[in-house]
Specification:
The complex is a heterodimer of chains A (500) and B (393). Chain A is α/β, with parallel strands linked by helices. In chain A, the strands form 3 sheets. In chain A, strands 8-7-9-10 form a 4-stranded parallel β-sheet, sandwiched between helices. In chain A, strands 1-2-3 form a 3-stranded antiparallel β-sheet, with no helix packed on it. The longest helix of chain A is centred in the middle third of the chain and has 27 residues. The longest helix of chain B has 25 residues. Chain B has a domain of 144 residues: Rossmann fold (3-Layer(aba) Sandwich). The radius of gyration of chain B is 21 Å and the shape is globular. Chain B has 393 residues and is of the alpha/beta class. Chain B starts with a helix and ends with a helix. Classes of the chains: A alpha/beta (500), B alpha/beta (393). The interface between A and B is large, with 52 and 48 residues.
Chain lengths: 500, 393
């Protein structure tokens, strides 16, 4: 199950390989249907995942002490292979779309994506922009890709501020033209306050000395990338008609802008249709999550369920992060439901999960994942949920009436993660109860002052009202393969404290 | 030589907490507010007492607030939380309600913590990030209307259009007088310094606004009298003239101001939110709630609000350019508090846009970096002086 990249024998990198014994079973699974590229058969996926990807993205297959959830230990969970295919095929699919004049749009995490897809664009949140950018250089080991990633982060830190959260890295990659980005148009959900200033910083790119140096620029460098902010009115926003009016207008402007770039006409019917499609994804994901939560033993491990923004799109996340293609995500989720349902029926436990794991519910934005779920499993825990993507997945958009923009605006303003903090905490308690979590961790990364500011408050409310142990855990900046000792020590102690 | 009116203002500020306590006993309601998008005219016209809250420079309060909020939040926000938790500040003690405008997102979070941990009675006024768009304007007009309704409940009466017009006139006049005094301080041998003007501005956060208006008249008269005594051309003091920009420097935060003065610099202009900026570019064209909303949205914006159009049309940057033109500073000190994203992210663009000698000081209230900051300020001033000397040779 392992091969070695020929390097200095002392630094040899061992790579994971899917065993051939899985192939026959895998080939019986269904195709992945995509919207922006042709469908792929299980045979093509198997070839990609066993031949192409290990050569092109060896970091994702590397077996080492800094394992970052690259490949799940549960190789019998076949949907897991497809989840990883979605991530590792991202670059090819995006470049193909770009060549077909599909606009690539830089957005924010945890938000809805109907306006972008309805108007013929591909929205990507920072983690996926980052992955796309990192994968532009192929053949890298984990150390090499980690170093490259750091270089992008440092470039942004020097240019703007060292106090930005790690999303400065992908924004700077877009500014430098390391990847094609046709529009920067995120929602300003309450999860992030840095986003607005990062978007604003694109205005000044022509005055940045380092951008004048061709060596700092990538092949997709543009002097001007169009910018938009979909503002998020705050404080009891879902009770104010005028807040909905405001957001509705911005959503209309957004669709018009994407439509202008894609050349695809978009009317209310097209948006309504997209809402129906994405609601279908939300409902299916909700079903998967509730199936998983109700199971007597966790039917998958944390990597396959919760995943990370790096190489593993766990099924939980795919319901909100489509890896650039909602149809592809839906295809994989259908498989996931069937496979998890079967596991629950037969009482199968995810590989790598201990017998009586400490169930952890995680709060905080996606950018804070500096500890891989595989590690949590290995020390006796299991991740049962994350409020970031779950907040959006839980919020179905009304499909009735004749104003889909209004429906969408109302749904967005009701995201539980974005509600006033006391209400968010109550929703969190409810999810903790449903998921039977034994503990809650609120993570926030370096520079995330908007989430970190309420971490203590949410922890206090959950501890007092749900009666479970909580931990407010600040982490280092972003993807840092070898800098997680402190986080791991804290996690270990927290899990030991609960299980002991 | 201290102007007599300055002493009178200072004495009035000292008496103010006792006055407020007495007024509240007699039924007056005090609206403490944070951030300068709260329309004071409406508070005043309803017969409520507007008091601008927030102090800086107190490490103990920062520490106290820091127990409940992350250390990745700026010290001003942490200290504000500490201030409310301690409940010893006379203005905090006397505030019946705390109004917070959500221009700074961290300040919005602070409002949630003030409500939860300090049990403060809060009202949040939403401020649109897309403040320069039609939809942003429509949103803010509705927010100000909603805010007014909340205050009407507190005041127990509806807003009287006549009283509103009077309040608008009063605040317009206050702003005009502040700008007039401000212009004088930048002149050579001015009878009043920038630091004194800052104290005058900040006294206005607490005093009865009619009394304050009267003080400003008296101050202008005294300045005029003192300035008129000399008929010779004033000589330059030779000190490097500086414009100060960046994060809030609230009452009590003297760290950077003291250092600049100690090192021989002279501040002649600022665009600070606890300084001149709230008095610039604000004109209520229509004596209505909507007119006030428009005026507040159209004033020189806070850096916390992102502007996505060209740098050349950015009113924050245009204001800085105007200040540079008007007050002829030799350089800019751009002061940023750690984790004050709004200003920190914009340091580089401000520098490249203004093209004047520029130094960013990134600091906190703690004294641990004071010698490092001192060295940098000293070096910056030396560099400016050296440039001036070479030019004069």
């Amino acid at each position: 199950m392992a091969e070695t990249i020929a390097q200095n024998p002392h630094n040899a990198v061992k790579l994971f390989r899917y065993p051939e014994s899985l192939k026959e079973k895998f080939l019986k699974t269904s195709d992945i249907e995509f919207r922006y590229s042709k469908a792929v058969t299980p045979e093509e996926i198997w070839h990609f995942m066993t031949v192409d990807a290990p050569r092109r993205y060896p970091y994702a297959y590397e077996i080492n002490p800094w394992f970052r959830d690259q490949i799940s230990a549960d190789i019998g969970f076949l949907t897991g292979i497809k989840c990883r295919y979605l991530r590792l095929s991202l670059k090819d699919r995006l470049l193909e779309a770009h060549n077909n004049s599909v606009p690539i749009i830089f957005t924010q995490g945890g938000q809805t994506f109907e306006p972008y897809y309805a108007a013929g664009g591909i929205p990507l949140r920072p983690g996926l922009i980052s992955r796309f950018s990192d994968d532009m250089t192929e053949g890298q080991t984990l150390n090499q890709t980690s170093r490259d990633h750091k270089e992008k982060l440092e470039f942004g830190n020097k240019l703007l501020t060292t106090e930005s959260c790690p999303i400065v890295g992908p924004h700077i990659s877009a500014q430098r033209g390391l990847i094609p980005v046709d529009l920067v148009a995120p929602y300003l959900c309450l999860r992030c306050s840095d986003k607005q200033y990062l978007v604003e910083s694109y205005r000044n790119t022509q005055n940045v000395a380092s951008y004048q140096d061709p060596a700092s620029r990538g092949p997709y460098y543009k002097e001007k990338i169009p910018l938009m902010l979909i503002d998020y009115p705050i404080d009891n926003q879902n009770e104010k008609e005028w807040a909905t009016d405001y957001l509705e207008t911005m959503l209309r402007n957004l669709t018009a802008k994407v439509s202008e770039l894609s050349g695809k006409e978009v009317d209310d019917r097209a948006l309504a249709e997209e809402i129906r499609y994405e609601n279908k994804i939300r409902k299916l994901t909700q079903d998967i999550v509730h199936l998983w939560w109700k199971a007597p033993v966790p039917p998958t491990n944390s990597s396959d369920f919760a995943g990370t923004s790096n190489t593993s799109a766990g099924v939980f996340r795919i319901g909100n992060e489509f890896s650039g293609d909602p149809n592809g995500a839906y295809s994989v989720l259908k498989d996931a439901y069937a496979e998890i349902q079967e596991r629950v029926r037969t009482g199968v436990k995810g590989v790598g999960i201990s017998d009586d794991p400490v169930r952890l519910y995680i709060c905080g934005p996606a950018a804070t994942e500096t500890t891989d779920p595989g590690f949590i499993d290995s020390i006796g825990g299991v991740v049962v949920g994350k409020d970031d993507q779950w907040s959006e997945i839980c919020t179905l958009v009304d499909e009735g009436g004749n104003n889909p923009y209004r429906n969408l605006a109302e749904a967005i303003l009701s995201f539980p993660m974005e509600l006033p903090t006391e209400e968010r905490a109550q929703w969190t308690i409810d999810q903790i109860k449903q998921s039977r979590a034994d503990g809650m961790i609120f993570t926030h990364t370096w520079g995330c002052n908007f989430q970190s500011s309420v971490a203590r408050m949410i922890c206090d409310i959950v501890r007092d009202e749900a009666g479970i142990p909580v931990m407010d855990m600040g982490t280092a900046s972003g993807f840092n393969a070898q800098g997680e000792e402190q986080s791991k020590t804290r996690l270990g102690a927290f899990i030991e404290m609960i299980s002991g | 030589m201290t102007l007599e009116t300055l002493t009178a203002i200072s004495d009035a500020v000292k008496r103010r907490p006792a006055e407020l306590a007495e007024m509240r006993k007699n039924g007056s309601k005090v609206v403490g507010y944070l951030c300068c998008y709260i329309p004071e005219e409406i508070v005043h016209a309803l017969g409520l007492v507007p008091i601008r809250l927030g102090i800086g420079g107190n490490e103990r309060l920062v520490e106290l607030g820091g127990h409940y909020i992350s250390t990745q939040n700026c010290v001003f926000v942490r200290e504000t939380l500490g201030l409310f938790l301690e409940k010893e500040d006379p203005y905090v003690k006397n505030a019946d309600v705390v109004a917070i405008s959500a221009s700074c997102m961290q300040m919005y979070r602070a409002s949630e913590l003030l409500k939860y941990y300090a049990k403060a009675n809060t009202i949040v006024l939403g401020v649109p990030r897309n403040f320069y768009t039609d939809e942003g304007r429509a949103y803010f007009r509705n927010e100000v209307r909603w805010f007014t309704e909340k205050l009407e409940k507190l005041a127990g009466k509806r807003l009287d259009p006549e009283k509103l017009a009077q309040s608008i006139a009063l605040f317009r006049s206050i702003r005009e007088k502040i700008r007039e005094i401000y212009t004088v301080q930048a002149k050579e041998n001015s009878p009043i310094s920038w630091r004194e003007v800052l104290q005058v501005i900040q006294a206005g956060y607490y005093l009865d606004r009619d009394q304050y208006h009267q003080f400003l008249d008296e101050l202008l008269a005294e300045i005029s009298q003192k300035s008129g005594k000399s008929d010779t051309t004033p000589e330059t003091d030779g000190k490097p003239r500086l414009i100060l920009s960046g994060s809030p420097i609230p009452p009590g935060d003297n760290k950077i101001l003291d250092l600049i003065e100690e090192m021989g610099g002279r501040i002649v202009a600022d665009d600070l939110c606890f300084g001149l900026r709230p008095y610039l570019g604000i004109e209520v064209k229509e004596a209505t709630v909507q007119g006030i909303a428009d005026a507040y949205l159209d004033k020189v914006p806070c850096a916390s609000l992102p502007y996505l159009k060209e740098l050349e049309t950015d009113r924050r940057l245009a204001n800085l350019s105007n200040l540079v033109k008007q007050f002829q500073p030799d350089g800019m000190i751009y002061h940023t508090l750690r984790f004050c994203d709004a200003f920190t992210f914009k340091g580089n663009e401000t520098k490249t846009f203004l093209k004047i000698p520029f130094m960013e000081i990134h600091t906190e209230y703690a004294g641990s970096d004071i010698e490092g900051v001192r060295t940098r300020v000293e070096a910056f001033l030396e560099m400016i002086q050296d440039k001036q000397n070479r030019r004069s040779e």
